[in-house]
Design the sequence.
């Protein structure tokens, strides 16, 4: 019985490792510097997480199907370039933002077409569109650094003097994603497809449509994140959105989403993952760690996330099988006694 209890505790730790790691790192940085635990600093962490967090939401949809999207940074750049150029040419914010989001979503549609219809593997498609998207962005901007007007710099504006607009948009995106994944047939079909594609096909699910849909969602999320990022940074340059795909993947995986598909959630999973990454970066600043070392720490976090995901899923399956066998062994004597009592009667 003690062995079974130990297995359950280990399963609990493995399933909630991101939350436990979040608490541990928060306490560790708080002990090092009391200002880290302040409400203002935590608000800054959430605000800095908004754009990457929105990208990570779309990435979670893709990873749940067993795919991957490496082109989200390029999608952000294309969106940002179009928004910045339209504003530079005198277009209003109300016209530039929808056009930019539409362009980013169409880039996601391009990924969806190549992956779901042409049947090219997601890694190769999105690696190609990552490079092509960067090239397209450089072409239309001519590699210029473009500043946006003040009306586009709404990243610090608070709704009702309470919640910054980027945080509000992030929260709304999380809410919509949770509703879709948890309470709609489409969400349940994504999980079913991620668990077993062939079984999903046999069950009558349109896996082609599902695959296309998640890459379109990813493109849309990257486009929205681009607008939020511009509103905070106030400009678009050649490095805009570069490397954000790796942060989004790391956030999703740290939050419990499996690279193999079928396992994960946006809340609390991906949200905890992105806050964890941003909290580490913020804590390193408080510790005055060298800027170049911070990038190395980010890389180590990504490697750790992938390693934990690979090890965790295997351990969980083995422990679940052991628990099932133990429960059967415990149940057999009780069943035998019941049968003996019935026969005696």
Sequence:
């Amino acid at each position: 019985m003690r062995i079974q209890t130990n297995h359950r505790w280990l399963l609990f730790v493995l399933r909630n490792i991101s939350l436990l790691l979040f608490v541990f790192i928060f306490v560790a940085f708080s002990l090092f510097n009391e200002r880290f635990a302040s409400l203002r600093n935590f608000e800054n962490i959430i605000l800095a997480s908004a754009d990457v967090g929105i990208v990570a939401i779309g990435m979670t949809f893709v990873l749940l199907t067993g795919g991957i999207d490496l082109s989200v940074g390029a999608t952000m750049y294309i969106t940002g370039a179009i928004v910045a150029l339209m504003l530079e040419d005198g277009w209003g914010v109300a016209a530039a933002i929808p056009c930019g989001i539409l362009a980013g979503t169409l880039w996601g549609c391009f990924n969806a077409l190549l992956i779901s219809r042409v049947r090219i593997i997601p890694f190769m498609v999105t690696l190609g569109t990552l490079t092509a998207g960067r090239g397209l962005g450089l072409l239309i901007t001519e590699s210029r650094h473009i500043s946006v007007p003040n009306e586009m710099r709404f990243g610090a504006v608070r709704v009702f003097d309470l919640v910054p607009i980027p945080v509000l948009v992030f929260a709304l995106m999380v809410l919509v994603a949770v509703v879709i994944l948890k309470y709609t047939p489409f969400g349940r079909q994504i999980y079913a497809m991620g668990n077993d594609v062939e079984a999903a096909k046999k069950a009558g699910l349109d896996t082609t449509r599902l695959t296309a849909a998640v890459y379109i969602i990813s493109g849309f999320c990257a486009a929205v994140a681009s607008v939020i990022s511009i509103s905070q940074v106030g400009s678009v340059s050649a490095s805009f959105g570069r490397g954000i795909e790796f942060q989004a993947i790391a956030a999703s995986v740290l939050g419990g989403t499996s690279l193999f598909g079928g396992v994960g959630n946006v809340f609390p999973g991906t949200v905890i993952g992105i806050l964890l990454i941003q909290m580490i970066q913020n804590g390193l600043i408080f510790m005055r760690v060298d800027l170049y070392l911070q990038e190395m720490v980010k890389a180590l976090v990504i490697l750790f996330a992938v390693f934990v995901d690979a090890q965790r899923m295997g351990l969980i399956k083995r422990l679940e099988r052991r628990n099932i066998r133990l429960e059967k062994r415990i149940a057999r004597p009780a069943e035998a006694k019941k049968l003996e009592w019935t026969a005696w009667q």
Q: What stands out?
A: The beta strands are 146-147, 158-159, 163-164, 235-236. The first helix runs from residue 2 to 15.
